[in-house]
Amino acid sequence: MRGELRYEGKAKRVYATADPQQYVVEYKDDATAFNGVKRAQIEGKGAVNNAITVAIYPQLEAAGIPTHFIRQLSVNEQLVKAVSIVPVEVIVRNVAAGSFSKRLGIDEGTPLSRPVIEYCYKSDALGDPLINTDTVLSLGWATEAQLARIRELALKVRAFLTPFFGARGVRLIDFKLEFGTLAGGEVVLADEISPDTCRFWDAATNEKLDKDRFRRDLGGVEDAYAEMLRRITT
Ligand code: UDP
After folding, report:
1. Over 90: is that where the pLDDT of 35 sits?
2. Is 176 in the pocket of ligand 1 (CB under 6 A)?
3. How many alpha carbons fall within 13 Å on the CB side of residue 105?
4. Domains (range + CATH), the chain
5. Among 17, 52, 119, 137, which is least packed, fewest CB within 10 Å?
6. Whole-prediction pTM value?
7. What pLDDT digit, counting tens, does each position of 101-129 carry?
C-alpha cells in the first residue's frame, strides 16, 4: 500500500500510494513541544491518536463536515485523500489557556463568551507565528471563498465536538485544525483530532487529559491518552 515517503512531520509520516488521489498517513510515537525543543517518545501514542481520529472523522463527515479520511489501514496507519495542505493552523478556543492566556494575561480556565478562532502560519522554522486573515489572502495561501469555508467548517467542528466531549465528561478547552484542498479547490478537514492537538480537561476534576501532561511534565501521559480513547470509543 505504502509508496514513497512524501512528507515527515513531528508526529506523522505521509506516503504516496499507487493512486495519486490517496495517501497513507502513519502516526508516530514521537512527541515534541515548544517548537521541537522538547522531544520524547510516548509509547503507544501513534496508535491511540490514530484510533481517536479514526473514531471521530466519520462522525464529523456524518455531521456535514468533509474530511480527508477514507479508512483505517492498521493500528497506526490510515488511508486519506491526497490534499494540498493550507499552511495555516486554525485554533479554536472555548476557554482561555496556553498561548492565549500568556499573550493576553487572562487566567487559564476563564471561559470565553464566544468562540475565538486564531490563525498561525504553519512553519516550524518560525515557530508557527500568529497571523490574521489578511496575511492568508495577501500571501495567496487560500482564496477568500476557501478562507470563509475554513472558518465555517472550524465552527461546525466546534459545534459537533464540544457536546460530543461534554457527553463523555470532558471539557473541550481549545483545539487546532488543519485544512487541505482537493484538486478542484474544495476545502476538507485534514490532519488529526487527538490529545496532541486539543486541550481536554476532565469535567469533574479539571484534570488535564492531553499533551499538556507532556509539555508541563505532569506525568501520566500514556494513561491520559488511553483514557481519552476509552471515553471516545465506549
Ligand atoms: N496546538 C497544536 N499544534 C501547535 C500549536 C497548538 O496542536 O503547533 C494546539 C494545542 O494543543 C492546543 C491549541 O492548539 O490545544 C492551542 O494551543 P496554544 O496556541 O495555546 O499553544 P501552546 O500553549 O500549545 O503553545
Report:
1. no
2. yes
3. 0
4. 5-81 (3.30.200.20), 84-220 (3.30.470.20)
5. 137
6. 0.97
7. 999 999 999 999 999 999 999 999 999 99
